[in-house]
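User: Show me a protein chain along with its predicted structure.
Assistant: Here is one chain, sequence first, then structure tokens.
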Amino acid sequence: MLGLGSKLFMEFFGTFLLCFTVAVAVPAAGAAAPLAIGATLMCAVYAGGHISGANYNPAVTLAIWIRGKLSFVEFITYMLVQLIAGCIAGNAAKLLVDDIGYPGVSSNAGMGALTVEVVLTFALCHTVLHVATTDKQAKNSYYGLAIGFTVLSGAVSVGGISGGAFNPAVGVLTLVESTSITELIESPEKVMAEVADTFLSTAWVSFAGPFAGGALAGVLFLLITPSELGPDATILRGCREAIAPFVIEIIGTFLLCFTVATAASPSNTSPLVPVSIGAMLMGQVYAGGATSGANYNPAVTLAIYVRKSMASEADFPLLKALGYMVAQVVGAVGAACVTLFLTSVSPGYPKATVKLPAALGCEVLGTFFLVFVVLQTATSVKVSGNSFFGLAIGATVSTMAVTLGGFSGGAFNPAVGLLGLSTADSLPDLVDAYDWVYTAGPLLGGLLGALAFRVAAADEFAADGYSMV
């Protein structure tokens, strides 16, 4: 068993790399910086996961401690080392660039900055807990990808609102940016006063938001995963396990729709918007796949129900499918409501630029491709146990958003289509704001995708005596 010294060294090294990348890449790489940040985190997680758990983030450490996978000594020392690493990384970056990158809170963000820090840090910690700490997903090879690209997604979608810290160690860069070692030596009282002023004016968001998001993720994990907590977790165990899939569907759909609403906002000019949406979906598919199947889309749920019914499989009954759809609608409506709270941005939502037949056709085609990929990568016995299913699903949404999104609006998901309701000023306006294309198109595409799977994978149905070949 590794000693605490080795673990702390790994936490320092990984956190230093992440914070140094943020400090240097943001001013140097501009719009491409999220790619560097997400990829650096992914590689560092893969490099250090087997040593320290690769937290590299005090908020993640808090979530894992609440979950019960860290001792109190590790919890305290990890966080201390991570914060020190952030400070040293910022000062090291100053040797290369005049103005380092740091989480800059939008001047008109208000409480919206805190909100997005909570939501995205929750997404990160929720993903970490499920892909990197559970027995169900032990020894998977996608944990680093899911974690790194969740941060990439958030940096694109809400970076312009809160600065995109999602990590108090990254938040330290804000305090480092306005100071120097020389000034600290010459006038420590003045520097400490400036640091305190910076913290109280804006930087506190990069600490309070991530810690709140990490705590929320840790507590939720305790509530819905009693099977991962050992035999002592007996309080309402059956009930908690029964509702867990529906809670996961709410969370995954919420995070996907929240990402669409923020990333696709008219004020977001990043060329990586489709990547952000696909990356969030990928991360949540990996996080929730072992619990609910990670549908997050009524069209996908319909397709899986039809696919299972044609194979006479009883593990996805109609009542469960309908429950999933209700959960997905709840998640989408919740995302729309939270997004409206962000007064500094206009929420993004699907908007067609072509006439009805073409828009409907694009939604059918895009959803057809998505559903076909889902069924082939996540339900086919020929590729069972693969690690690419989440990547394939998330990348499909990204590619369809690039290919067809400019024409139909690129929902490919009735839950995402509900984001348009956020434009309604009153209850009667909801009828006018609702666009049936984003329900009918995806559902038809999902049905056709299930039928296409039946043809393409006919040999998987042969045992039931009704193979089509």
